[in-house]
Every structure is written in C-alpha cells, then in structure tokens.
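Form P-L/3: holo structure prediction, ligand adenosine-5'-diphosphate.
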Amino acid sequence: MKILVINCGSSSLKFQLIDSESEAVLGKGLCERIGIDGSVISFTPAGGDKIVKEEPMPDHNKAIALVIEALTDPATGVVKELSEIDAVGHRIVHGGEAFTKSVIIDDQVIRAIEEVSDLAPLHNPANLIGVRACEKAMPGVPMVAVFDTAFHQTMPEEAYLYGLPYRYYEQYKVRRYGFHGTSHAYVSARAAEIIGKPYDSLKTIVCHLGNGASVSAVKNGRCIDTSMGLTPLEGLIMGTRSGDIDPSVIDYISGKEHKDLKGVMTVLNKESGVYGLSGDISSDFRDLEAGYNKKDPGAIRAIHCFAYHVTKYVGAYAAAMNGVDCICFTAGVGENSPLVRKYVVERLGYLGAKLDEAANESRGKEVTISTPDSAVRIMVVPTNEELAIARDTAALVK
Ligand code: ADP
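OUTPUT (holo model):
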C-alpha cells in the first residue's frame, strides 16, 4: 500500500509517501508559510533532487493541492495517479483520554479530537485542517489519526496525576498526558528488536532529545511515565521551553517584569530552555556545540544544564521501574550529539553503565554506545515517526 503521511501545523505541512510493504520513502516534502506571504513547497522524490517552488498558499486546501501535484507530476512525481494513494495517516498531537491507540477517522473521531482541542489549541485545530483538506482532495480515501499522546495512556494514576485538587482532574481532565508518543513507542520497540529480546520483557528509558525533548519509561512494552505533562512545556529543558520550574516563578517574574500571564507563558515557551540559558545564543545544538568548542560560557552552561536534567530523569525512571535494561537516545540532539550523550552517561556509573567512547562518536545511526561489559545497554536509535504513522495506518485500513 502507498500511504501518505501528513503532519500539519498552523502554517506548515510536512508530508511523506511511504510504501508500506517495503517501508521505502517514495517522496517527501514540506509546505511552509501557509497563509503567509512567500509560501514555499519543497519536494524530494526518492533518489532525486529537491525541487523548491514558491507558490501562493492562502490556505491548507491549496497546500494539499500542491502536495498532490508534486506527487503526481509526470516528470518528477512518484505516482501516476492520485488513486494510487491507498490511505492517509495524520499526526494528531492531542488525543486526551479518548484515544489509547490510532484509529480510522470518521465524524465521531473528528468530534472527539475537537473536544480535546482546548488542551492543544495551537496543534489540534491545525491537525484537523489537514484532515479536512485531505478529505476534500481525496474523497473516499481512508484516513487514520495517530496521536502523540496515545502511547502514554498506559501510565498508572500515580504517574499521571498532579498533586492538585482531584476535582481538577475530574472536571477538567488536568493530568499528565505526555507527547512524542509515536517516537517513544517506535524507539523502544526497535531497541527490543536490536537487542533480540521480547518487547514485553524489557525496562527501557527513551530520551527523545530534539527541539522539543522528553524522556519516557517503558516497562514490558507499556509506558509507565513520561516527562511532558498536560502540555509539552513540562519536563526537560528544551530548545526554547523551560521544562520543570517552580510554578511560583510565574507570579514572581510577572511582578518583576510587569508582564501578564500570557506574557510570562510566552517567555517559558519561546525564550527559555537552552536558548534562554545560553544568553540567547541559539536553541540549536549545532550552534551551542560550536560555542562550547570556543569555550563560550553561555553555551557551556546551556549544554551542562540540559544534560544534567536528562540525567535526573533517567535516574528517576530507573527508580520508577526498579531497574533499567536499556537506555535509548533519539531525535535531532539524541542522534547527533556525542557531547550531550557523554555528559548523561558519565553520571550513570551507579547503574553499572559504561560508555564506549569511540562508538559514541557516531551520529545519526543505529549504534550501541555502551561497552560489552556495561550493565545497561545504551543505544542510539534514530526515530522514524512517519514510518510509525504509516505502519499504523496500513494496519488499520488493510
Ligand atoms: P523537532 O522535531 O523537535 O523540531 P528534531 O528532532 O528535528 O526536533 O531536532 C532538532 C534539533 O536537533 C536541532 O535544534 C539541533 O539542535 C539538533 N541537531 C540536529 N543536527 C545536529 C547535529 N549534527 N549536531 C548537534 N545537534 C543537532
């Protein structure tokens, strides 16, 4: 089957066409600046060069029309006709408590996604715009919703409840949901395959370290805890998000800087993390590592704080699972930063973890970075959320 995977944001849309049998990517691309001047679509057919076109995209319907045009282009496309696309898999950020796994999209599912939209006001409405645009452009083609939150729905109450009045959970569903679930599920399952042991017999900690970053504890194939919360703001220090802080900081900074609640929340989401800690150098670890190599104090500070927080979560989750067999690093930073991995692993001696320094130098590849006598297997497992979405979609529409 040929599965179109769509990850739709408010002004961007990423897409991949995947052959579900061979799991090959037939083509992939990105629409940027949808609804803004200067819209651009880029498309790379498998084995071909990237094609970049500036085209006005006043809305997502136009973006989807251009995606279809790119995929079916007689010269550079990857399918002859639209009818070759068997199904569409959509990334949906928030499934609330309603969705514990991927589902075929129908009117009821759309309503349920709308109902939880106030938990992810920036994401879910944008995701649904993508669903509706595809429905219009490809009527009758089955579509599947794959939720970032679904994998974490197996967390026990003790992990997902906050120390707040219980009625906030009952009335407003205030709780930990967790995100990046598709990645945590894919990476933990892939790690079991690589190790050659049953998924349901392992205790795995997945460190998804990208621009957004989260850690999860996966025990016997089920997520039992994760660092992101009601929203993706909680947990690790991220690119521009603060991660965990004392909630009193909000009130205190609001007074000091004369900012309203919205203003402080913007700081926590967009001006904090390694970006803020570095003294506004960058949220990108490539820049921070360059700064680190030049002994820039801001870059050194940001990298140390980031890695320290990852180490703390690994320790917490080893405790939560009463042990750990395997620790995986994934996503942009996890796959590409030997420096961050080294700082994390060097503090895990108490778990019997030993880093293979030479293996740790590798970037972007599946590799074991612990020594053969390490008590914990430590690996880099590149994530592949699009493939995971395509797999779920193919399995459901078969
Ligand atoms: P997201 O999907 O959350 O936007 P990614 O998983 O794509 O994030 O990760 C993006 C981050 O990965 C970049 O901000 C950058 O810091 C980091 N990154 C990517 N490539 C490298 C590299 N070669 N070395 C160090 N960091 C890298």
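COMMENT: Residues 210-212, 239, 284-286, 289, 331-333, 336-337, 363 surround adenosine-5'-diphosphate (CB under 6 Å).
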